[in-house]
Structure formats: structure tokens, C-alpha cells
Amino acid sequence: MSHGSGPRPATARKSADLRGSIRIPGDKSISHRALMLGGLASGETRITGLLQGADVLATGRAMQAMGARIRKEADTFIVDGVGNGALLAPEAPLDFGNAGTGCRLAMGLAGVYDFETTFLGDASLGRRPMARVLEPLREMGTQVRAAAGDRLPVTLRGPKTPAPITYRVPVASAQVKSALLLAGLNAPGITTVIEPVMTRDHTERMLEAFGAALSVETDVSGVRTIRLDGRGKLTGQEIDVPGDPSSAAFPLVAALIVPGSDITITNVLMNPTRTGLILTLKEMGGDIEVIGSRQVGGEDVADLRVRHSELSGVTVPEERAASMIDEYPALAIAAAFAEGNTVMAGLDELRVKESDRLAAIAAGLKRNGVDCEEGASSLVVRGRRDGKGLGSAAGATVNTHLDHRIAMSFLIFGLASEHPVTVDDVSMVATSFPEFMHLMTSLGARIA
Ligand code: S3P
């Protein structure tokens, strides 16, 4: 994918029943972490199922720039790590493109080393707040130079000996938690991260698998205390990356809203910190059958059989937000084709994703005839099952603001609405789900 090749618009049209079986590519969160821990650990890490999206490839290049060797043999990525504590100073700035996860986690990983690292990104990443990671890194002794407040480009220089700290994560963010744990790997003693709201726990799981001395305690109110003893040895592992539930969200919602559909999505990660959307869609009346539940590489995985359903609006509990934070754009599309109101609250974090997703969703829905109300941190959508009058006969375009999930969500919308839906740019889809167009059209979706 090239950011420089100009925007590529696409249009989705009302489609007949979606049918068939598709395998979802690797989970983005796990793929980033596999390359980072593989690149850091001693010995060889073999990764199958790695997501080969632009975001993850940027992380791979960053790890190579810091000394890891990465090669591909058939479907396996083989990473030769440098050994914990032994990253090399990169000779050039690390460019993370559109990838917030890669950038923030790498800031933790490299930012506590006694060398300079500069972090760059595209226009979307350049607008995203970095203070949430920079503040705890400063507490550990890292010097920070940021061009504009806490925005990229950022240059970090770690101290001779980073201080292990105790830090309560102020926002529900797996990226902040993970950045700190990765920083803690290079600090002598115990780094403690307190997480009031549980977020995706792939970093904790993978650190344990690589041999880090890590413990997790959860109190009666659900607050998690994660302790990591730094400077231990990490040993290369075999990792099989399950399919990304955040990518599965798009065919899943598409099958629910396109009449007559019956599809199977295989190899979907079912880690409970990631399944909020499935739970919510089931509450809306979605016919989603979880089949073949199994364990892959220490994670729950299953196949999903999804059939068209008569959806009804629901109120989504705020405390569920962390387990479906990337899925609100897809949920909003399901809500547009559900009878009655769907109420979503506690969405502050959506404002600082690849775009201001709350604003982008509301604007896209309105442009396509959906009655909705955007609050400071909430969204209410009043849907209609038949999609009558929805879409844009005049060809009005949805502005995706360099956001892959906004693009995919509105293309799904256009499969069920009376009129077509056009999005201004699908080039960013390649950051997380390069196979999206191909897989959707293989099911019968009319997208071009
Ligand atoms: C991610 C954490 C979430 C999520 C992002 C991936 C991760 O971000 O939105 O797509 O892999 O840790 P926040 O930590 O900002 O919530």
C-alpha cells in the first residue's frame, strides 16, 4: 500500500444473499506483539498466520532497524531476536505509517534505551495523542522531544538505568498498558501497571509465553494489577496468530443485514476481551452460531456461522466498550438496519482513533439517510430493517479521514441499503485487512 498513490474511491451496491465460507486473516494486535517480542527475545520465533497488513509490516521494519532479523519461509515468518536489553539504536527514524499500536508499543519498547529513537507517522497518526505513553516514560527517566505538544514526530532518549514505576493507566487503553510493560522489560526491578478497566490482554499472555516473570492479580471490583520483573530472559516461541475479530466484524455485520445471507467465518479469535460485538449483536437478535471452539496458541478460537437476522436496537452497556472499542463503526451499521434505537455511550476513546470515529460515523450515517444523534461521547442510531431510502442515489461520498474501519463499515452499509454508498478512499483498508475486497466479493458482495 502506498500512501502517496492518491485516494481510491469505492462504491457498494445492494447485494443478493451473501453465501460461502471465508478465513479471516491474522489478528493485528497479536501480530504486532509477535514481531516485537520475537525481535526482542533470544533465539528464533516462528510465526504463522501473521497479518501482512501495512501496519504490521511497519512494525516488522522497525524491529529490523533495531537489530532483529526477519525472514519468510513459505507461510512462516522467522524472527531472530536480539535478546532482552540488546536492541540496537536505529540509524533512521522509525516510520509507523497509520499504525497507532505499532508506534505506541515501540515507544515503550525502545524509549527506555540509552539511545535516540525518532517516531514518525502519516497524517492520521500525526494527529493522535501520544502523551498517554510519553508521561509514564518520562517517569521512568526518558527524555522526550516532541515537535508539537505530544504529537509526532517524537524523539525519545532513555536514561542509563530506567526506573521501574507503578502506574495506574488513566484511560482504558491496551496500548498504554502494553507500552509500559514493554518498557518495564528493560528496567531493573518490578514495573507495576494498574488497569482499572480490563483491556485486551495479549501482551500479558505473550510475555508469559516468552518466559517473562509476570503476575496478574484481579481484585473484587475487577481492577487488575500487573507486575513485571524486568531484565529477565525472553526465549523465542512458536506463535500461530488467530484471525482478527475486528476484521471479522465486517462480513459478520454484512451477513446479518443482507437478506437471505448465510456465511461461515473461520478461525476467529474469541478472547473474551475482544468479543463485545458478538455479544451485542446477539442481543440485537443476530443469528450467530459459535462452532468448533478450540485453543490456538493459548487463545480461544472458533468459527462463526452467521445468518441474516431481523435486528432490533439495544442499549449497549458502557462497561462493554473496551471489549469492542474497534467495533463501534461496524455496530453502528448494524444499528442502521435494526428496528428502533441503538444507544451507545462511553465512547470518548473513539475520538482519538485513526480518525475522530464518532464524528466520522455520524457524518457518514447522516449522508446516507440514517437518523442519528452524536453526543460528546455517545451515539444514538434509529434504524430501519428494510434499508428503504438509505444510501445515496446522488452518489454523495463518505469521508473516511484515512480510517480503514470507516471505509469498510460504509461499504458494508451499501450492501443492504436501497441506494449505493460511495466512500472517498479505500487505500487505508490495506493497513489491517488487505483481503477485504476479495473476501467480500467472494461472498457475493457488490463492491467495486
Ligand atoms: C490495540 C488497542 C486499542 C485498539 C487498537 C489496538 C492494541 O487501542 O483500538 O486498534 O493492540 O493494543 P487503545 O489502547 O488506544 O484503546
TrEMBL record:
Pfam family, one: EPSP_synthase
CDD domains linked: EPSP_synthase
Positions contributing to 3-phosphoshikimate binding: 28-29, 33, 173, 175, 326, 353
The keyword Nucleus appears for this protein: no
Residues covered by the Enolpyruvate transferase domain: 13-438
The enzyme's E.C. designation: 2.5.1.19
InterPro entries per UniProt: Enolpyruvate_Tfrase_dom, Enolpyruvate_Tfrase_sf, EPSP_synthase, EPSP_synthase_CS, RNA3'P_cycl/enolpyr_Trfase_a/b
Region of interest called Disordered, as start-end residue ranges on this chain: 1-24
Keyword Ligase: no
Catalytic activity: 3-phosphoshikimate + phosphoenolpyruvate = 5-O-(1-carboxyvinyl)-3-phosphoshikimate + phosphate
Keywords: Amino-acid biosynthesis, Aromatic amino acid biosynthesis, Cytoplasm, Transferase
Family statement: Belongs to the EPSP synthase family.
Protein name: 3-phosphoshikimate 1-carboxyvinyltransferase
Organism: Ensifer adhaerens
Gene: aroA
